[in-house]
Structure formats: C-alpha cells, structure tokens
Automatic annotation (TrEMBL):
It comes from Suhomyces tanzawaensis NRRL Y-17324. SMART domains: ERCC4. Residues 566-578 have a biased composition (Basic and acidic residues). One of its GO terms (molecular function) is single-stranded DNA endodeoxyribonuclease activity. One of its GO terms (biological process) is double-strand break repair via homologous recombination. Residues 579-588 have a biased composition (Polar residues). GO terms for cellular component: endonuclease complex; nucleotide-excision repair factor 1 complex. The keyword DNA damage applies. Residues 562-619 are annotated as: Disordered. It comes from the Eukaryota. This is ERCC4 domain-containing protein.
Amino acid sequence: MSLFVEDEDQGPRPLASVQSQASITVPIQSGEIGVEFHQPEIVPVYPERTISCTLPLKYQQEIIEDMLTKDGLLILGRGLGWDVISANLLHALSSSCVTLQHGDGAPIEKRSLIFVLNITEDEVSRIRESLVELHWLDESMDDEEEPQFVEISSESHNTSSKRKDTYLKGGIISITARVLVVDLLSGLLSPNDITGLYVLHAERIKETSSDAFVISIYRDTNDWGFVKAISDEPESITGFTPLATTLKMLRVPNAFLWPRFRLEVSQCLNYIDKGILNRVREEILKRRSVTEINTKFTYKMTKIQSAILSCIQACLQELKRHNSDLATEYWDMENAHDPHFVRRIRMSVNSQWHRLTYTSRQLVYDLGVLTDMLNYLVSMDSVSFYQMVQGIVDLNIRHARSGGMNASMSPWLNLDDSNTIIAFSRDRALGKISVEKRRQEVIDVEDNQENPSETADVEVTEEYLLEELPKWEQLGLLLDDILHEKAVSNVKNQGPILIMCSNPHSVEQLGYLLKDMKAEVNRMTGKRRFSSRKYMVQKLKGYLAWKEVSSLVKKINTELDAAPEEGSKTPEADELHTSKTFTRNGQPVSSRRRARGASASARVSKLYSGSNSEKNTEAAEVDATILKNLQAAEDEEEIDDERVTAPNELEEMANSFLMPEFADNGEWGIHLKFDHVNKEDQIIIQSYNERNNDALLQEISPSYIVMYEPNLSFTRRVEIYQEINKDNPAKAYLMYYGTSVEEEKHLLGIKKEKESFSRLIREKASLSKHFETADDNYKFHLNKNRVLNTRIAGGANFRTENDELRVIVDVREFRSSLPNLLYRSGIKVIPCMITVGDYIVSPKICVERKSIPDLVSSFKSGRLYQQCEQMFRHYELPTLLIEFDENKSFSLEPFSESRFQKINPTNPIADQSIRQNIQSKIVLLLLSFPKLKIIWSSSPYETAQIFVQLKANQEEPDVGEALDKGVNRAVVTEDGGPPVFNDDPIDFIQNIPGINAANYHLIVQKVQSIEKLVELSKEQFLEILGLENGRKAYNFINKTIS
C-alpha cells in the first residue's frame, strides 16, 4: 500500500467541493473525508429595487457588479474613476432597511447603517454631490426617504448623545476611525447595528491603525455585514505577501485587480464604432490622441542636471560604503527619480539611526536636498533657482564657520560637480551678454513700425541673461495656435482652454506669465516667439530684496561669532569621514586641526579655490547700470501707467481687495469692476488634484487640455473624458522636457505601477481559499500561563487563563496604537474620560504613557510634574511609561534631529548634550518622586506584553472609581460626563495668589474665561474663594504699578 498512490481495488473517491463561504466541518474517519456544511446563522436580505447608476464605461459597470456580489478589496489603476465607482456602489448599498433571517426564526428588520472610513473632507463633498445626483436619477426612490450622508466631525457631533441620535437615523456616515472605536467599545453603538463598512485608501491600512481596529471589533461580533475596500495606489501595497496581508487586515476574502492594461479597460477606452466612415474615424482618432510637445533643456540646464545627478550618485555610493549591512537593492540610481526615494532610504535606516555615523546622517540629508534641487530645476525660474542654490551654500558656510558643534559642510559641496551647479546657476540668472541694438533685429508685433533714426545707431550694451524656461515659449506658441484655430473654426459653443500644472506655485507662475508675455517677431528669420522678460525683471527685484536680507543675517551671525572660544579642540566625532570621492587635491577632508572649526574653514576656502579662484562665497552682485537699463526698458514697454504688481505682492494685493477701507461718506473705498468673459475665451489654470480632477473636467468641459507637466492619473482621466465625449472630444497636449528628470519620473511611475500590478496578479493566482468559522479568532493571544501566577498559596486569588482582563483607557489615548494591541492581546479595553493617568491597569496601578516627543514637551511645560502629583494623590503605584516607536531606534537620539534644520543633522556632541538634558530632567523627576516607577518600552507590542505582566495577581479596575478620582462631581458636561479641562489656563490662574489646586475648580465652575476673571468685583472674589483667598486674588489683579 502506498501513501500517495491508490490501490487497484479501491474505487474513485467522491470529491468534496465548496461553493460558498459557509463554515464547514471536516471529520476524519477510516480514511474517508466527508464535508458537512453549516449555513450561516444570520443571512441579510436586502429589498429588491431598481437602481439608476451614472457609470458611462462598461468596465466600471463590471466592477460594481463584482463588488455588490462579494466582499473584497478593489485595487484600481490611477485615474480610472475611483470616485464615481465609490459613489455608485454606496448608492446601490444604501437601502433604507435590511432584513436579517435567523434560520427558521422570524426575520428581523434593521435600519441600514453604513460607515465610510479613511475619507478626507474634499472626498466627502465629492461623494455627497454624486449621491444627491444619483438620488435624483433614481425613480424607485420617489416614495421613499432619501438616504442620508452625514459627516461626523468634532464640531458638529462633539457629544455622545448627538452621535447616538445620528446612528439611530441610519444612512451613510463618514466618521474617523478613532471616534468609531470609542463608541463601539463604550457600548454606544453595537457592531450588530452596522450594515457594513466601506474603506477608502486601503493601502494605508496597517496592523496597528485605527481603521484595522474598527474592522476587528466589527467582525468579531458581526459576521453578516459587509466590508468593502478600495485603493488606487498599487505601488503602496508592499512588503512580504502584500496582498494576503492586506486582505487579512481588512478581513475580506476576495481581491479585484483592475489595472490600465487589463483587456476590458483597454478595449473600453480605445473603442470606436466600426460603422462610422473612415474619414470621420481618422478625425476622431486624431482628436482623441494626445499630442506630445518634447521641449529640450538649455545647455546650462543640462549641465546642472548632469552635475546634480553626479552628486546624488556620489552621496549614494558613499552612504552604501559606510552602511553596507543596511544597504538594499533599492539604494540605486535607477530609483533616484522616485518621489519617495529619500523617505524610503530614511525608513530603512531608522531602526539603526542612533548607530549611524555623523557622516552617514549628513549624506541622508544631502540626498534630500539634491533631489529637491533636481525637481526645482524644471519648475523654478532661473533667478529663483540660483537664489535657492546660493541659500544652501550660504547656510553650509555659516555652519562651517561657526566653530560650533555643527561645524561641517555637506560632503557634496566638496565635489567638483558642486562648482558646476553653482557656476551655471549663476550664469543662467546673472550672466552678462553683449547686445548689439536688440531693437534693430527684433520688433514688437503690436507696434510693427520701423524707425529709421534708430536703425542708424549701433550700440553695444550689456544685459543680464535672465534665462527663461524653455516651456514658457512653447506654451505661448501653443496657445497662439489654439486661439488661431478657435478663431477660424466653425464650431460653436466651444469650451475653454484648460492648463494643468503640478502644484499651486506653477499655477501662480503661469498666471503672471500669460499676463505679461510679449509676442515678438525676428526680422532676420521671421519666426514668431514669446518673451517673458518682464516677469524675469520682477524676479530680479525679488532677488535684490533677498540679498539685502541675507547680508543683514550674515552680518548678525558674524558679530555673534566674532569672539570664538580658544584653547579647545574639536573632538574627532565632529569631523566628516568620507572617501576620496569627496576630497580635492589629494587632501582628505577629515584631517584634524588644532583650532575649533579650522578644518571646516579650510574646506570652505577650498570651495571656490584652485581653478575657480574667481568665484567667491558671496551671492552675485547686481550691476546698478544694467538694472537701471532694464527698468527703463520695462517702463517704455508698458502701455498703461499702472505699475505691474510683482509676484511676491500677490497676497498683499488680495488682502487689499478683501479688506477695503471705508471712505468718509461710508461707502467702500475700493470698487471692483468685473467683466464677463465668454466660455470659449477662457483660459483656466489648475493644479493636479487626484481626488477632484474628474469633476473638474465634467464641469468645465474644455475643448483644449494642456498638461504643462506629466501626470499619470490625470492622463487617465483625460482618456475617460474623451471616451465619454467621443462625439466631440477635446484636443489634449502633453508638455515635457525630453531626456530630463521630468520624463524619467513619469516613465518610472508607469513602470512601477505596472510592476506592482504584475506582482499582485501573480500573488493572487497563488492565494489559497479562505474559510472562517465561529471558533476562528484574529487576536494574537499572549501565553498567559507564562505571565499569570495561578498559585493559591498564601491565600492569593486563583486566576485562570480564561479570566477576563480589563484595562481602563483614556479616550485621548486612542490616537496611539496601544489600545488596538491591548484588544488584540485579549484584554478588554474600556474607554473613559479619566482625569488621572492614561491607563488604569488595576486599582493600585496607574500608568501615564509618554512618547519621546510628548515626554520632552511635558518636561518643557511642567505638566508631567503635575500629572505625577495627581497619580501619587490617588494611586498606590504610579507608573511612567516611556514608549518608543517600533520603526525607530530605541534611543533618545532621533528626537534631537527634529530640533535642527533639514540642511544638516545634529553633531554627535550636540546629540549627547540633548540626551543628557533629557536624562537629567528624568533624574530630577525621580528626585521629586522617589517612588515613581518607570517603564522603558521599545514598541507598543512590548507594552502590551508588559501590561499583561503587570496584571498578574492584580484585581481588575473599577470604572466608577477611576472616573471619580481627580474629578469634582459638581462640574459636569452636557452629557453628564466629567469635564475636559484646558490645562494651560488652569496652570496660569494657579499662579495668582489666593488661587491654588484646592479651589481652582471653583473658578472653573463659575467663570467662563480669564478675561471674565479679571473683570470680577471684590465681592464676587470673596463669594467664590472666601474671605482671605478672595482678598489676595482681587488685590493682586487690581494692583496699580506706578
């Protein structure tokens, strides 16, 4: 007999197949496997109704069908219409009631209650509008009540009674996960009253997040409701078996993957009716296609980009050399164009940050500076870019010359490529060019007349280059062609021109450019071009203002550092230790010097030494004569006498319009004149918004779409818009810099999305079938046998591992992940608004939890001292829990980094000083409270284990006693609960003589604010505080100081 091959005398065995998600029982008897099905105890039955949907594309309709029939996670490609799918799905699920069938028992009817989690305010507005439109279209809802879509916020639903009334009304509710967790755990809302959960941005769900906490509580009790989730960022779903992990956290069995390259999506977006004529087909294809405008960098921009990439590569290689054990495959130049490149490198070294050398930390910061510089190259004008580069150099030089604990420059400034960046940035903006009578060669289009007297003079003058971005001229030419095409077109009721940019700064920039752009024609070639010289002159004025402020700052710093300390040596830890990549002339940059900061000063002097001796560390000066000539030329070209407002004066001008002064006769001092602009003449400039771009296209219905910068999501939105409006599609144009970081970033985004979907598709193919039973439990129970003492000796209370453990948690602590982990550890979490402590472990143990930033801020404000006083007044074993982040190093050092600027990390000596400062404050706290217990926890997971250990042989806490401690029952809130005090005003009034910790609650109860307090009469003080304390408080407040 073989264990794997059947004997010949054995017949074929019947196969057991499972066609539903019902629970199963598999008994094993005498070599035969039988399957027994158990139908779900509760089956939800939704009323039959006809639903109208606004899903114009076929693939969207198929997605809705899949999501309605099964619970699951929908992963969409970017820009494929997550908002319209979500709105239609919620509309289909939002029946007024649902009937629960309990086997053969009588059915129970419940009001439908759906919660939408992880949604922003803008998304709430967008989905609410879509739901209203769907309700108007749905004829079957005429005789029924309109389903509500309510947003629960801290302003509108600040009490539990208001939230309870909202829950009873049912409908679709948008709520934060933290508030919903508290209401579920406190019993204000039962999980069985919830019809379903709809989770947006499922890629953000983590094991310890509040959204996962809500799903766990909901699914532990409610097994008949639905859970549906959606995500449009597949590249964010990463890790080991990312799809299976995400499905486990969401407690859903199915995954629906819809990338752009899926056959159904491609056929839908590229569909053209075969019955139309070939000529019409070609015209439609021509209009639906995107015209790419490949713009080339100027020579100087190309050199700067190449130098920046070389600096990034050098820093990356040096970082890998110093941290070979931490380096991963991601640390490669291929990923340098990833928007999250530096953040992911920082995350990979966070756990060992306290062990990294000062050089490694500086390199991480330098990577962030260089990648930002690379992005600014394609969007900033030449003057602003040079101003930014010069600001970085000045800041490094100031740090290096300070002679303090941060006396080290960034390593990339010691590279030859750094001189290339600085020199070409200066030449782009303030490089001088000789011009031979520019007006002889270039004439104004608006004033196309020659002046013979002027052509006779040939004068050579100097001007600043003030290099313009190449895209500006191409945009002017494109808009000129579009306006000409619209003028000669016979099509009526055309839409506006829509220009899309990557950020609001580009929107503001283009707004000024299109207003000041000047059309010119070259007399020699006859070519038409557009100049933005006026805009660049305004930027040059802004540079002069910045230079003046920078000079004042440098002068102040020089005066402060005029008398450095003598006779002290800089420790070796202050030096940057790098390889020969960052050295010049064969001299290592880490050579030690006797004087403080001497080596750094030497590197500063070398920055512009050698072959580049003409360079200096100062920002470039502006020639007064050239500036005067530029101003005179600008004045001559102005048609009106009205001065053009500079870009940096936009906010000031807007404020003057918003707050006009009143005239003497009571009328407005400023009158605004509005002119009507026809829709076809409008040019609308907007920034990319992945959540509202689809609504923008549908609302304004543009005839021409110009994508000033590439954006994958918006490109897909345009494809959908073209398919919906196939009879009259808009003309789309895409502008980008060829062979540049902009093009590489766009291509990398497409590549990463495709790779992410391919990885998820392969994982989905190998996913095993998932079944659940009532005995399954997603909680990771700790081994209580190793923690709890079950001995009865000595009269101890006997405790078994099945006994319920309870912890009272302050509701403000649900912002952290610890309550979630306590619940998943098998501990019952009871949320309360307690005054003393954060966690009540037992009647004797009170725990105040502090993260590292909270700890330092509490030391600074003195609040921790008061909290310890309260805990010692009411509990026998007060405990301070200092909890670290599990993703960061178990050290006080990472906090010190946040106190300094991004350009430089803190020096090891500075780190040590800051750590000693925190440690000394902890020692002083222990001197004040010798019996205070301190718990150092490396992560919330470790804290959960410690709490179980603390509860060994301890009684369970009482909720009533925890609420009474530290609370004056005479003061209550609207819902009858304990008040939440504002600690800062309370600390302030206790400094007034006569007001102390024993009677401040009388002031809080009877006086609304500090302003009202100082207005009280002497009799009122005596009535509230008594004779002696009232007299002291009144005399202190009303004392006159001569």
